[in-house]
Design brief:
Layout lengths: L1 H29 L2 H11 L4 H6 L7 H9 L7 H14 L2 H16 L14 H35 L9 H12 L1 H34 L13 H17 L6 H27 L2 H4 L6 H21 L4
Helix pairs in contact: 1-10, 5-11, 5-13, 6-9, 8-9, 9-10, 11-13
Length: 313
């Protein structure tokens, strides 16, 4: 009976995953961008579930504050790989394509809008909006990442659980340690992350490939008007669905994809900084000296961590 129950549970999980993936695919293909992005923005509130978990368990805040400022690290290749992975989830190549393309989508959704290099009258307003959007978004995403790390550290890691292969396993392992409420909050957070992450990752790949191939692109377009663009989204989403049936740990796949993102981001950041400082490309909108300095510092740190990762020991 136990084997039958386990089989039924596994089938239900796969069916729910398939329903979830196909649902997000249908939303991304058939719902116009200006409506779809509205739901994505509000869906980010689900990430607060990870912060809520911290109010259901004991947190040694004094030690947390100390180790946040002064972490205890062994500077070896494994630590370097983890640093590269963290950078790869924050300064990700796919975000370069996603954010830039969504700005174009926003502009195209407004008939009277034009690129700032052609019409600089609204430059002040638009740049303030972009600055606020970027800083607030990065603050929110990074503080959420901090809550996720902290929540898993004070629950799973403290209990000696360091080998997690699926998100469902992580949520289930949390239940006996922190209770049903924490388990529910953690599961809701995972669901929210999936609903946000699947369309963003698939959409970013579609933007990048479509622009490189010269195809029509845009979430505001109908599927029949941008077949290549939506075809990439469909293939990407279905490939992600197929991974769960392979003998690959989803968590390890996520980790190493983040590492790859962190390595690939370094040369891309070099190119972006050079373009952002080039007046023939940016016109009067070249980036400030402080941002250039911060950009080069971030690039150097990421590059150094990536190099250290390949040095044994």
């Amino acid at each position: 009976m136990g084997e039958v129950a386990e089989l039924v549970t596994g089938l239900n999980r796969h069916l729910m995953t398939a329903f979830f993936v196909f649902g997000t695919l249908l939303l991304q293909v058939f719902v116009p961008y200006h409506r779809y992005v509205f739901f994505l923005k509000w869906l980010t509130l689900s990430l607060l579930a990870y912060a809520a978990v911290l109010f259901t368990v004991h947190v040694p805040w004094g030690q947390v504050a100390l180790r946040t400022v002064w972490p205890r690290l062994t500077l070896n290749s494994d630590t370097a790989a983890m640093v590269v992975a963290v950078f790869g989830t924050t300064i990700s190549p796919y975000l370069f394509f996603w954010q830039a393309s969504e700005e174009v989508e926003d502009m195209q959704a407004k008939p009277a809008a034009a690129p700032l290099v052609r019409d600089a009258r609204k430059a002040g307003t638009e740049l303030r909006r972009i600055r606020w959007d970027t800083w607030s978004g990065m603050f929110y995403s990074n503080i959420t990442a901090y809550f996720i790390i902290l929540a898993t550290a004070v629950t799973l890691n403290v209990a000696g659980i360091t080998d997690i292969n699926t998100a469902a396993q992580a949520a289930s392992a949390l239940r006996p340690l922190a209770g049903d409420f924490a388990y529910t909050l953690f599961a809701l957070g995972i669901l929210g992350v999936g609903l946000i992450g699947v369309p963003v990752l698939a959409g970013s790949a579609a933007y990048a490939l479509s622009e490189a191939m010269g195809w029509k692109w845009g979430l505001e377009r109908k599927a029949t008007d941008a077949r290549g663009f939506y075809g990439v989204i469909a293939v990407s989403v279905l490939a992600g669905l197929g991974i769960q049936y392979l003998p690959i740990s989803p968590m390890k796949a996520l980790f190493w994809s983040a590492v790859i993102n962190g390595v690939v981001a370094v040369p891309l950041m070099v190119v972006i900084i050079l373009l952002a400082t080039n007046k023939s490309v940016m016109g009067a909108f070249t980036v400030s000296r402080s941002l250039i300095i911060l950009g080069w510092i971030a690039t150097a740190v990421m590059g150094a961590a990536a190099i250290r990762m390949f040095i044994p020991g």
